[in-house]
Amino acid sequence: MQSAAAVSISASAIATGGGARSEAARRPGGLRVCGLRGEALACPSMRISPVPARLAVARAAAATNGAVVGSGEFDYDLVIIGAGVGGHGAALHAVEEGLKTAIIEGDVVGGTCVNRGCVPSKALLAVSGRMRELHDEHHMKSLGLQVSSAGYDRQAVADHANNLASKIRSNLTNSMKALGVDILTGVGTIVGKQKVRYGKAGFPDKEISARNIIIATGSTPFVPKGIEIDGKTVFTSDHALKLESVPDWIAIVGSGYIGLEFSDVYTALGSEVTFVEALDQLMPGFDPEIAKLAQRVLINPRKIDYHTGVFASKITPAKDGKPVLIELIDAKTKEHKETLEVDAALIATGRAPFTKGLGLENINVVTQRGFVPVDERMRVMDADGNVVPNLYCIGDANGKLMLAHAASAQGISVVEQISGKDHILNHLSIPAACFTHPEISMVGLTEPQAREQADKEGFEVDVVKTSFKANTKALAENEGDGIAKLIYRRDTGEILGVHILGLHAADLIHEASNAIALGTRVQDIKFAVHAHPTLSEVLDELFKAAKLQPREGPDSKPCQPPQPLLKVLSFITALLSSSRRDRQ
């Protein structure tokens, strides 16, 4: 028996009472749904994508490198400079949209994330998580397990990280080749309007033309002045991921995502850690309440101490039998405070855009602290504040949100625009995660940011929290440390931010990020059903705990289907019922 889900209705047919039987009316994906209720409604919502049609376009494009849409006088519809996660995401979506696409890479496919960032670091963190659990005798005994001892092979751990990066790099390369993306090797430079030159040392340069160009060159570790990097005893995350040594005592300069994750790795492998943080508190980029709890769980019980409100004004690598020397000065007065002597120092002070040599001067574009200026549609702006036609910049190079998946989302958004569909990415819906043990994740505004916005715009903010200690699955794992925090508007139910500290927080955050992206309110998402017993029920309880202030007026009424749609749905229901009776 054919299910009712196979029936599709076009918006145009509904608006006219269903009189016209257009192609849109017969095409799957024409049904609009509101929130998570799955009801056919005539209100802003998500559209079920017609996957078969999009796959057909992708396969046709792959056969001729995107020849579905001709380039005309251009060599390519789209050229992307940089084959990191952002460039890769843009390239795949471009071919899917029928664009003839090339990607230029001067180093290796995968960029920072795959080769020197989030991918190999997760391999190290997987090891640290296992080691931490095996060394927790109380945790093991509570589960009825007995472990005599646990050790590790440093080189084998390093090989695991390197092998993972190689595998993912190969996967990205093969996925682009399979879809027909031209991978051009060399350093890309913009030489004029819609023209790019690329090449590598020892070989002649080549010049190509493109209807559209995306800059996706990423970033490199930022090293403050006065810090001498030798790659052995004073190093950045690029070097640390090779795990060439596990020092007895390591200082980590910076307590953001990178610093926190490496503190998790090093302490699990036996190192003592000292944080050096310029601001007055650790983890300054996190919601303050989450940061305080994270300090109690991730910092205080471990072999970690810290100095806040200080700069590392000078760091000298170890040599001639002397240790690494770190001179600390007061962040406000600049007076010398003390000198640390440690075995190694990891510089985790953030990242700087990699935009030199792009030839931006050829098109009157001036970077701002190295970042390429863009508008909300990722269109590059010139020195006069005008949009540079057909030129976009995504990812770390524009500085809007320096996360790999943000770069990919920006690239997809740009391709949507190139394909004739206006699209603006909501950056507040993009989640972030810190893969410590336990994990931290967040999306949207922190509580101080939300309250500041509320004061400016005149609305009331409310906050609710739930604990992992009340979650059956977390207790079964004996992992009850953690909370989830919801920040929302009491008048409308709009979700402003969600922050989670706890087991698998990085996986749990996506329900909240998708709700923000789709504009789903707490009064709607609270009816979503979660499997029991699962960690997802932490968010289920969180949304159910939200209370809205009583409100009168049209905004308080749920979105209702118009009368023509009700008639169409009633007709379909009667038709299906009649069909079932005939078969009985």
TrEMBL record:
Family the entry assigns: Belongs to the class-I pyridine nucleotide-disulfide oxidoreductase family.
Keywords in alphabetical order: Chloroplast, Disulfide bond, FAD, Flavoprotein, NAD, Nucleotide-binding, Oxidoreductase, Plastid, Redox-active center, Transit peptide
UniProt GO MF annotations: dihydrolipoyl dehydrogenase (NADH) activity
Binding site for NAD(+): G254, S255, G256, Y257, I258, G259, L260, E261, E277, G350
Protein name: Dihydrolipoyl dehydrogenase
Role summary: Lipoamide dehydrogenase is a component of the plastidial pyruvate dehydrogenase complex (PDC).
Organism expressing this protein natively: Urochloa decumbens
EC number(s) stated in the UniProt entry for this protein: 1.8.1.4
Residues reported to bind FAD: K122, G188, T217, G218, S219, D396, M402, L403, A404, H405
Subunit: Homodimer. Part of the plastidial pyruvate dehydrogenase complex (PDC) containing multiple copies of three enzymatic components: pyruvate dehydrogenase (E1), dihydrolipoamide acetyltransferase (E2) and lipoamide dehydrogenase (E3).
Localization of this protein: Plastid, Chloroplast stroma
Catalytic residue list: H532
SUPFAM superfamilies: FAD/NAD(P)-binding domain, FAD/NAD-linked reductases, dimerisation (C-terminal) domain
GO biological process: response to arsenic-containing substance
InterPro entries for this protein: Class-I_Pyr_Nuc-Dis_Oxidored (IPR050151), FAD/NAD-bd_sf (IPR036188), FAD/NAD-binding_dom (IPR023753), FAD/NAD-linked_Rdtase_dimer_sf (IPR016156), Lipoamide_DH (IPR006258), Pyr_nuc-diS_OxRdtase (IPR001100), Pyr_nucl-diS_OxRdtase_dimer (IPR004099), Pyr_OxRdtase_I_AS (IPR012999)
Catalyzed reactions per annotation: N(6)-[(R)-dihydrolipoyl]-L-lysyl-[protein] + NAD(+) = N(6)-[(R)-lipoyl]-L-lysyl-[protein] + NADH + H(+)
Residue ranges occupied by any Pyridine nucleotide-disulphide oxidoreductase dimerisation domain in the UniProt entry: 430-541
Residues covered by the FAD/NAD(P)-binding domain: 76-411
